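Morning!

This is the sequence you dropped in the shared folder:
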Amino acid sequence: MLVAFNSFAQNEQKGLVFDAQTKEPLPGVTISWADGKSGAVTDANGHFSVASSTTKVVVSAVGYRRQEVTLVAGQSLRIELEPAAEDLQTVVVTGNREAALRTETPIAISKLSAKLINETKPTSIYEVINKTPGVLMVNLNNEQHMMAIRQPMTTNAYFLYMEDGVPIRPMGVFNHNALLEMNQFTVSSIEVVKGPVSSIYGPEAVGGAVNFITQRPTAVPTARVGIQFDQWGYKRLQFGAGARQGKFGIYLGGFVSKQRDSWMASSDYDKSSYFARLEYAFTPRTRLTGTLSYNDYNSQTSGSVDSTAFFARQYVSTTDFTYRKTFSLRSRLTLEHDWKGGSQSFITAFVRNNSVGQNPAYSIRWTTGAATATGQINSNDFKSYGFIAQHTQKLNFLNSKLIVGTTLDLSPNTYYAYQTDLTTELRADKKSVIKYTQVKERPDIQLANYQADIHNVAAYVQYDFEPLPKLRLSAGLRYDRMAFDYTNALDKSTGSKDYSQATPKIGATYDLGNGKGLYANYAKGFSPPALTSIFLKRTTPTASGDLFYYNLQPTKFDNMEIGGWASLLNNKVYVDAALYQMNGTNELLSIRQPDNSTDYQSAGKTLHRGVELGVTYRPSKQVFFRFGGTHAVHQFVEFTLSQRASDVIQNVNGKDMPSAPRTLWNTEISYYPVWLKNFRTSVEWQHVASWYQNQTSTVNYGGYDFANVRVGYQWKGIEVFSNILNVTNALFATNATRGNNATDRTTYTPAAPRTFVVGVQYNFAGKR
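The structure's back. Tokens below.
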């Protein structure tokens, strides 16, 4: 038997397949004989073996360029597959928490590849995410942001942000700035789902979900280290390294960045971010993965400027004392097993430790003409313990599969806020402020002080099957219960509250053949209010004497969409399109009051309807064109706006929601000259149409256009690059808002003037 085994082993040819861009091993790659007969498939770590008598094989995988390889007897093969950047139909994991073909996933989902991320060389993650059709991540400077995915530009918790499928923050904790806690240098790819995916991921995944897929240990030893900086005082040092040895793999990476004396006064910031990922393969079918993410962020929050300063390009903040500090530590451990017949199971245990402290500019209250104002200092801290478990069972009946899963998230949360007293320096007309000065902290005047133990539990099921050839149906249902026990020190109350909801979905894909297909789906979603809004002290008590927003109702959505994809002109053109309508109920709105405070109100009904389009075109190896955009309407259907300060009641039915540009798109053309190998250049154009600044649709901001130019060149392992952002030095604001009163003034969040980002990076890839 030993002799026979030895003889068999000597007659095998072994190989390894990995991504040419990231050097990550590629599972599921097909190794077929040159005559078209089936051969082998790579395992989870990219390994395969074929008979040594084989002389030539064809290596192919979805989303990669097909490659023909000649085998040399006695030599182990290392095959690098080049990504097909123009191919919009690829393998995605965010649709149902496991790898699946885009063509079998009946939702609008886009994948931002490692090649696109690497060539963008972003200093902030919005530079990449805004390349997604139908998505606008609003840059509020220093990596702060708002988001717009099938929604107006908003800070509402309608978007779920995840790292390898695990939410960055728990449901119920204000999450809109969660991406401050991301390490963009160690992200391998990004998947963006548009529309509700509550049936798999639960509440908050209603406008969409953004999943950051982290870098895996590399198939061959790799290392990269670099710096990048601009003329406005931004500097960053970054590094990453990975390798595999036997059953064990490791990847480490991170960066340290800082900004000093920028174009915007009082906007210094520091960030350090580190990431580690370890993998261990007990067998080719059983794997253990652990990750650790550490982020420390400390920034001045210069806020907005008034119209006088904005149009004069005098980027001087009205505050020099506001700040935001965040600390986060996340870890997860995932055990995966592949069963015979294609079934899969995994269980992920995770922990989080988070603290956010701030003295926010957006909380300053000031009445026109007053010599004094108030602000606040607050802190929001939580720890989390939880798990996600899922099993996928492949069935012979109608080529079907059944997915069942459950999640548990326990997150004790504490929050407090107290007042600060400010004085003002007014302009000559006394209608706006030149500068606020913080006079005194007032911990004796508490604005919020609560402790809540959040319990999030859920169970979900999904069934996919093919009743007819080329037609695949998917039906799912998830039940969520978010509950918390609380103690509110301000009104000396204790109690508990819960929100529960079942969210179904049903979808279908139909393969038309020749790289073309259609899909349709219907899904429900809901989002409970964040605890910070529930326990916010009201500016004015209600008629019944309520001091807090205990009775806020969850937001609910019904989403219907149809879409499709097509490969044209011998795979040179790819088109991906979707048409959707999402009806909302009880959408939570932050109504700005005359003193800049916030009053929460729920809109009875809202409408979100639009079309999204993504196009790529590669006429040759030298030219690549990409376009992604949307035209959408976001309107009030039933909403009566109540302005308590003036007792004016206004019906805004049929009017556009504020901060809701109807059209936005991002397009880019890249050039890779054959006469200068390893050189690249691209021109990108971002367009955002006009939007209304208030709920009454009386004041409009004209929108903006700007362009970026990127160039890069690699010589051996040394890469030099430059990004010229806002190359025409356009004057525009990424956010412009005002209240609903005639005396309110517009505040602008100015975009950076022309910025030259320069970088140098050394990339090393060894052999194995």
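Headline: Confidence is low (pLDDT under 50) at residues 1-9.

More detail when I'm at my desk.
O.
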